Amino acid sequence: MKDDFRTQAIIQELVRRANETSRRMRMLEQKFESMEIRQNSYEESTSEKVESINTRIKDIEVKVNDSYVEILKLKNNLSKINKQMEGLARRKELKEIERMFELLSPIRNEFVTRNELEEIHAR
After folding, report:
1. How many helices (H) and strands (E) does the chain have?
2. 35-67 burial: b if 16+ Cβ within 10 Å, else e
3. In the prediction, which pLDDT does 33 show?
4. Alpha-carbon distance 123 to 121, whole Å?
5. How far apart are CA 31 and CA 23, in angstroms?
6. Contact between residue 102 and residue 108 where contact means Cβ atoms under 8 Å apart
7. At 111, is the secondary structure helix, strand, or coil?
8. Per-10-residue mean pLDDT, the chain, length 123
9. In angstroms, what CA-CA distances link 116 with 66, 103, 104, 122?
10. How many domains does one find in the chain?
């Protein structure tokens, strides 16, 4: 009987240990599954962020290229304006012309009539 009791106790201990091991394995499997889900979530999130960044980079590249084209157009227009300005009168030249007009302006200068001139000579 003692052997039966002892055998039964050993069997019960083995069953208890097997149950404990099974419970631990289930917990580990659950933790592993949870980690796998989190890893997949991180991968998806990272993938979405990379796609978003790539899209933004492409947008920036397009804007930079557009800006470059606009700058080239502005340079071309500035060159045209500079060429046109070469043919225009300078400020100094305009001042000289203005002085000439002032000299010849009848409004700013006093002219005498013939009668007034004869009166001045008669005196």
Report:
1. 3, 0
2. eeeeeeeeeeeeeeeeeeeeeeeeeeeeeeeee
3. 96
4. 6
5. 12
6. yes
7. coil
8. 84 96 97 96 94 96 97 95 83 84 67 80 80
9. 75, 22, 21, 10
10. 1
* Cβ(96)–Cβ(88) below 8 Å: no
**Position of tokens 């962020």?**
49
- Which pLDDT value is given to residue 108? 59
Token pair of 5, please? 């009791």
Residue where the block lists tokens 């007034």? 116
Look up the domain containing 45 and give its range: 2-122
Residue pointed to by tokens 């003692």? 2
The per-residue DSSP string of 57-93 comes to HHHHHHHHHHHHHHHHHHHHHHHHHHHHHHTSPPHHH
